[in-house]
Amino acid sequence: MNRKKGAKLKERTELLYGIQPVLGALQHSKRLLNQLYLKKDADSSERLREILILAEKIKLPVSEVPVSQLTVMCPDAVHQGVVLRCGFLPFTSMPDFPQSAVGTQPLLVVLDQIEDPHNLGAIIRTCGFFEVNAVVVTQDHSSGLTPVASKASAGVLEWLPVISVTNLARFLNEQKTKGFWVAGLEGEAPDCFTDFSRDRPLILVLGNEGRGIRRLVRKHCDWLVSIPGNHEVSSLNVSNAAAVALYHLHTLPQTP
């Protein structure tokens, strides 16, 4: 490969690292896959061996390299002995959203300008655990679907539908016409989140780490609720708040 062609390849690709993100990328094929790099003696690790077998099955080129090379490729990252050169992870579009995956009372999580990729990844991991149907993010002022976010999500980002919208207020209004009820989680809201019930399709809105839910988005919420706790603590981190809220929703019986 000549130098110019190699440079263009790197412009179109990124380095995904960590066992769960790489395994998820190989299993779900939402990315273009270019080259897998494994630490030498990867066969000694059961999880790395699983990745190697899967890569060979799909005929993905594999290079066994020293751990030091992986560290140079992904500095300041916990690569766990595996790095994947791959295409960028695409967003899911609404027409591509698998309606078969939507239950009788579907649950969407909307993130209003979540900018920290660690928060995005942690929220998506929680959404995967509690069987959220899809996550919706804003096109602007939001973290991208980066390797950092994928690692923080423990690979859930590689398979959970994530939809990007240009106008969040318009999106919420459209979903309300389809029967969704919109609840916004806000620290200062007077109503308690534990009064919630699952009796209709639901959208849970979480706001920016510092600014919370924007005014126009808040206007499209049918109900603003807060998580009860110690008033001497201003609020929970947004990813922790998502975990508490989704656990509560997950335990509620769904009524037709």
Automatic annotation (TrEMBL):
Does the keyword Transit peptide feature in the UniProt annotation? yes
Q: Where is each RNA 2-O ribose methyltransferase substrate binding domain found?
A: 15-92
Give the CC-aspect GO terms. cytoplasm
Q: Which UniProt keywords apply?
A: Methyltransferase, Transferase, Transit peptide
Which Gene3D superfamilies does the entry link to?
Answer: 3.30.1330.30, 3.40.1280.10
- Tell me if Methyltransferase is a UniProt keyword of this record: yes
- Tree of life domain: Bacteria
Q: What GO molecular-function term can you cite, just one? A: RNA binding
In terms of NCBIfam families, this protein maps to: rRNA_methyl_3 (TIGR00186)
| Name under which the protein is recorded | rRNA methyltransferase 1, mitochondrial
